[in-house]
TrEMBL record:
<feature type="domain" description="ABC transporter">
    <location>
        <begin position="3"/>
        <end position="223"/>
    </location>
</feature>
<keyword id="KW-0547">Nucleotide-binding</keyword>
<dbReference type="InterPro" id="IPR003593">
    <property type="entry name" value="AAA+_ATPase"/>
</dbReference>
<dbReference type="InterPro" id="IPR017871">
    <property type="entry name" value="ABC_transporter-like_CS"/>
</dbReference>
<dbReference type="InterPro" id="IPR017911">
    <property type="entry name" value="MacB-like_ATP-bd"/>
</dbReference>
<dbReference type="InterPro" id="IPR027417">
    <property type="entry name" value="P-loop_NTPase"/>
</dbReference>
<dbReference type="Pfam" id="PF00005">
    <property type="entry name" value="ABC_tran"/>
</dbReference>
<dbReference type="InterPro" id="IPR003439">
    <property type="entry name" value="ABC_transporter-like_ATP-bd"/>
</dbReference>
<comment type="similarity">
    <text>Belongs to the ABC transporter superfamily.</text>
</comment>
<protein>
    <submittedName>
        <fullName>ABC transporter ATP-binding protein</fullName>
    </submittedName>
</protein>
<dbReference type="GO" id="GO:0005524">
    <property type="term" value="F:ATP binding"/>
</dbReference>
<keyword id="KW-0813">Transport</keyword>
<keyword id="KW-0067">ATP-binding</keyword>
């Protein structure tokens, strides 16, 4: 098991009341599989993803990466070395080119990466479908689908085994959505990554190896 969440509780205080977004939520993930977590808007998908990626911490419960509590690994260290995150709104640096965006995580990771980082970054972008002349363009001069690809390449840049994505095709048309889904499948099935996508799209859920549904703070298997 590469990633495990155990009895996660997360709530907002509403006057005297606690409004639970996650209630005793447990879930586990293996390498080589493409997972989806399906839920309606406001169901807590982003919250769950932010706990799995150490962008936030639960009120109780724990997240284990390869059996180690990510709190013990250190949230920052875990983010720097173990997980690639793809955000709904890409979160790219707009004043950087595509290749410069991919170089950012490479400059801060402690993972072993080849010395010629620029070549690695260009190759990664090319693999994801961003050719050289687009790789040298400022990211805000690229289309939404292209920016999403750059965000995927950036998430892969530190050679992590775990990829987490928040509604990664939310801003894309159907054709582009399918291309991105194919990339996720390939990363899981050909490169052995663990890919976890939160989404409200049934279409993506149907194409994943395993799907869960999040509703009222409770996770169930989605058939
Ligand atoms: N600071 C806050 N105070 C109170 N409630 C909050 C706060 N931030 C988020 N929430 C609520 O927590 C719930 C879960 O939010 P979350 O962003 O995890 O949902 P989501 O499933 O990702 O939704 P979407 O698909 O719309 O992005 C929502 O009902 C939201 O209104």
């Amino acid at each position: 098991m590469i990633l495990e969440a155990k009895d996660l509780n997360y709530y907002y205080q509403d006057g005297e009341q606690r409004r639970y977004i996650l209630k005793d939520t447990s879930i586990s993930f293996e390498k080589g599989k493409f997972y989806t977590i399906l839920g309606q808007s406001g169901s807590g998908k982003t919250t769950l993803l932010s706990l799995l990626s150490a962008l936030d911490s639960p009120h109780s419960g724990e997240v284990l990466f390869n059996g180690d509590d990510i709190k013990k690994i250190g949230y920052e260290k875990y983010r720097r070395n173990n997980v690639g995150i793809i955000f709904q709104s890409y979160n790219l640096v707009p004043t950087f080119t595509a290749v410069e965006n991919v170089l950012v995580p490479m400059s801060i990771t402690e993972n072993e990466i080849p010395e010629d980082t620029k070549t690695v970054a260009y190759n990664l972008l090319d693999y994801i479908g961003i050719v050289k002349n687009k790789a040298d363009r400022l990211v805000n001069r690229l289309s939404g689908g292209e920016q999403q690809r750059v965000a995927i390449a950036r998430a892969l840049a530190t050679n992590v085994e775990l990829i987490l994505a928040d509604e990664p095709t939310g801003n894309l048309d159907e054709e582009m959505e399918q291309e991105i889904i194919e990339i996720f499948k390939k990363l899981a099935h050909e490169h052995g990554k663990c890919v976890i996508v939160v989404t409200h799209s049934n279409e993506i859920a149907l194409q994943s190896d395993q799907a869960f549904r999040l509703r009222k703070g409770v996770l169930t298997s989605y058939e």
